[in-house]
TrEMBL record, chains A, B:
Pfam families named in the record: Semialdhyde_dh, Semialdhyde_dhC
Pathway(s) it belongs to: Amino-acid biosynthesis; L-threonine biosynthesis; L-threonine from L-aspartate: step 2/5; Amino-acid biosynthesis; L-methionine biosynthesis via de novo pathway; L-homoserine from L-aspartate: step 2/3; Amino-acid biosynthesis; L-lysine biosynthesis via DAP pathway; (S)-tetrahydrodipicolinate from L-aspartate: step 2/4
Purpose: Catalyzes the NADPH-dependent formation of L-aspartate-semialdehyde (L-ASA) by the reductive dephosphorylation of L-aspartyl-4-phosphate.
Family, as annotated: Belongs to the aspartate-semialdehyde dehydrogenase family.
Keywords: Amino-acid biosynthesis, Diaminopimelate biosynthesis, Lysine biosynthesis, Methionine biosynthesis, NADP, Oxidoreductase, Threonine biosynthesis
Residues that, per the record, bind phosphate: R100
Protein name: Aspartate-semialdehyde dehydrogenase
Catalytic residues as annotated in Swiss-Prot or TrEMBL: C129, H253
Record GO terms (molecular function): aspartate-semialdehyde dehydrogenase activity; NAD binding; NADP binding; protein dimerization activity
Length: 355, 355
C-alpha cells in the first residue's frame, strides 16, 4: 500500500487537533509526519498512532519531501506558506478561505463534487463549515430534482471561531452564574472594535460586514454553494441567500434551510433519497421527537437532516433542519476525506512539479 | 379620570409577574385589583403601587364587578374561567392561544391593528410572542409596500415556555460546568414523552407537531400573522412560513425574517420607515457593529430591528433580524397596551352584558 509524508499546519487549533485525530483514524498510511504550528507552540509534542511527534515552527523550508499538507492555521498563514509547499511538490488541503474563490482551486466536498479534484494545481480548498453541511444535505436533492433557490438561516456554534471562542462561551456562562459581568474579548470577530458576550445571547454577525450589508460569512455561504453545486461562484440559475447567526452552542451548527426545486417531489421520496445518501443521517420522526440536535451531532462525522416538510403555500418549496459537527465534517474530517479521495484518484502530485 | 377594577389571572408566572409590573407602570387607574393564581400560590402577597395584595385561588365567581381581566394562566384555565368573566361583564385580554383563532375574537397588536378591538365580544386575544415582534416590524413595510411572502426562522428564548423552562436552562448550564449530566424535565414541550437539554444545544421543536410536519408554534406564526395583517387566518395572498427553534437564551427571541414585497423600495427608505414606526427601535449600523441582541432587548418594551438588506438576487426581497423581549412586548406589555387601547377607545364593556 502506498504511503505518504503528511504535514499538518496549525495542529494545535480546534480544527488542527481534529485533523490529527481524523488522520489517525483514517486508512491513510503515513510515512513521515510533520506537525507545524506557530513559534508559541513549537516544542510541544503530540502522539500519533502510538508515536510521539514534536511540533515545529511553521516555515517555508519544512515542506521538502511532503506529499500532503493539511492546513488550518488561518488565511494569512496559508497565503504565506502554501505556495512554497506546492512549489516543493506537496498537495495542500487548505481549510481557510484564502484560496477558495480562485478559479483554479477546486472547492470540494467528497460526497458532492469529488470530480473537481482532478483540476487541482497543488491546492484544494476545504469549504466553510456552514457551507459543507448544507451542500451535503442539498446535493442529493439537487441532483434528482434541480434546485433553483436556497435560503438559509444558520445557528452557528462558538467553535467555528476557534478553541478560544468556545472557551469564552463557557467562561461567560460561568461568569453569569457567579453574578459577574461577562468579559467578551473574541466574539463576534477576533480583532473587531466591539466584543459582545455569546453566553445566553445571539450574535447576528459572523466575520466582517460587506458593503451590501451581508457579512463575509453569508457571502461565503452564497458563493461557495454556487461554486460547489454549479461550478461557478457567480452562477445565476441557483439563487442562494444566507443569514448567519452565532448561538451559545460549543460544537454543532444548525441550519434552517428553505429550498425550491423545479419539481414537486413528495417529502417521503426526498427523505428516502437522503437516508441513502453518503454522509447523511436522516433523523426525521416528529411523532417520536426525533430531529437533529447539536449535542447529538458533536463528535460524529455525518450530516444530520430532519424536520423535512413541504411549504404549505409554495409548490416545489420545502423546509429542512440540518446539523453537523462544524469541526469534523465542517472542517477536519472533510479535509482528511479530501486527502483520501486524492489518494484514491492518484492525484497526490502537483502537475507543474516533478519531484 | 376613569378608574377600573382589574384582575390578573396567573399572576405568579413569568408573564403574569410582568403583567403586574407593566400594569403598575401604566397610566391605567386601578380601583380594585384582584390577583388570581392556582391553589398552590393562594395566600402569597404581591405589592402593587405601594399596597399589598393577597393572591386568591382562581374560580369563576371572583370576576364580579371586574372590568378588565389580564390572563396568562394557560389555555385550559382560560377556557375554563374566561367565559364566566365575560358573563360577569369583564373584558378579558387573554395571553393564551385558547381563543386566538375564534373568528369573533380580535387578535391585536396595538401598533398594528387596534381597529379590530371594536369587534370584541368580551375577549381580546394577545398573539403568540414570536408573532407579535415579527408583525410589529413587518406591518409598517406591509402598509407602505404590500407584502406577499414572509419566511421566518426563529431563535426563541427558554422563557417562552415559562419561568421553569428558564430555570432549567440555567440549571443545565451549571450541571454541564460541574461535569454532571443535564436533567431536562420540561423542554422541548411540557408533558411530552422526551425531554432534551437546551443548554449549549438547539431544539427544533416548540409545541407539538401537526400532521403536516410543522409544529404548532409554526402553525401559530403562520395563521396569526395572516389574521393580524390580513384579517383572515387563512388568507392566501400573503404567504407565510416559519421554522421555530428553541435556543439557549433566557429572555429575548431572535428572528431571521425574509420578506417579499410587490415593490422594490430602497433599504434606507425602509430603515427610515421603521425608525419612525411606533414600538420599533432601529439598531442597524453594521459599520459600528450595531444590531439587535437578546441581552440588550431583555427588559425593554420595544421591538428591535437590524441587519436589513436587499436580497442579492430576488428583486423586491429583503432580509432583516428582529429581537424583542418575549415576556414584555411578546406577552405582558402587549396585553397591558391592549387594555390601554380598549380604555382609550371606550371599549371596556361587553356588548351583550349590561352591568
Amino acid at each position: 500500500m502506498q504511503s505518504f509524508n503528511v504535514a499538518i499546519l496549525g495542529v494545535t487549533g480546534a480544527v488542527g487537533t481534529r485533523m490529527l485525530q481524523q488522520l489517525e483514524k483514517s486508512d491513510i498510511v503515513v510515512d513521515r509526519l510533520v506537525l507545524l504550528a506557530s513559534a508559541r507552540s513549537a516544542g510541544q509534542t503530540r502522539i500519533f498512532r502510538g508515536q510521539s511527534y514534536t511540533i515545529e515552527e511553521a516555515t517555508t523550508d519544512l515542506f521538502k519531501g511532503i506529499d500532503i499538507v493539511l492546513s488550518s492555521a488561518g488565511g494569512s498563514v496559508s497565503k504565506a506558506l502554501l505556495p512554497a509547499a506546492v512549489k516543493a511538490g506537496a498537495v495542500c488541503v487548505d481549510n481557510t478561505s484564502a484560496f477558495r474563490m480562485e478559479p483554479d482551486v477546486p472547492l470540494v466536498v467528497p460526497e458532492v463534487n469529488p470530480g473537481m479534484l482532478s483540476q487541482h494545481h497543488g491546492i484544494v480548498a476545504n469549504p466553510n463549515c456552514s457551507t459543507i453541511q448544507m451542500v451535503v444535505a442539498l446535493a442529493p436533492i439537487d441532483r434528482q430534482y434541480k434546485l433553483h433557490q436556497v435560503l438559509v438561516s444558520t445557528y452557528q456554534a462558538a467553535s467555528g471561531a476557534g478553541q478560544r471562542a468556545m472557551n469564552e462561551l463557557f467562561d461567560e456562562a460561568q461568569q453569569r452564574h457567579e453574578g459577574e459581568e461577562e468579559t467578551a474579548a473574541i466574539l463576534p470577530v477576533k480583532g473587531a472594535e466591539h466584543h459582545y458576550p455569546l453566553a445566553f445571547n445571539l450574535l447576528p454577525q459572523i466575520d466582517v460586514f460587506e458593503d451590501d450589508g451581508f457579512t463575509h460569512e453569508e457571502w461565503k455561504m452564497i458563493h461557495e454553494t454556487k461554486k460547489i453545486l454549479r461550478g461557478d461562484m457567480n452562477d445565476t440559475e441557483l439563487k442562494v441567500s444566507a443569514t448567519c447567526v452565532r448561538v451559545p452552542v460549543p460544537i454543532g451548527h444548525g441550519e434552517s434551510v428553505y429550498f425550491e426545486t423545479n419539481q414537486t417531489p413528495a417529502v417521503p421520496d426526498m427523505q428516502a433519497l437522503l437516508a441513502h445518501s453518503k454522509g447523511v443521517v436522516l433523523q426525521d420522526d416528529p411523532a417520536h421527537q426525533v430531529y437533529p440536535q447539536p449535542i447529538n451531532a458533536a463528535g460524529h462525522g455525518e450530516t444530520f437532516v430532519g424536520r423535512m416538510r413541504a411549504d404549505r403555500e409554495n409548490p416545489g418549496a420545502y423546509h429542512m433542519w440540518v446539523v453537523a459537527d462544524n469541526l469534523l465534517k465542517g472542517a477536519a474530517l472533510n479535509a482528511v476525506q479530501i486527502a483520501q479521495e486524492l489518494i484514491k484518484r492518484d492525484l497526490v502530485r502537483v502537475p507543474e512539479v516533478t519531484k
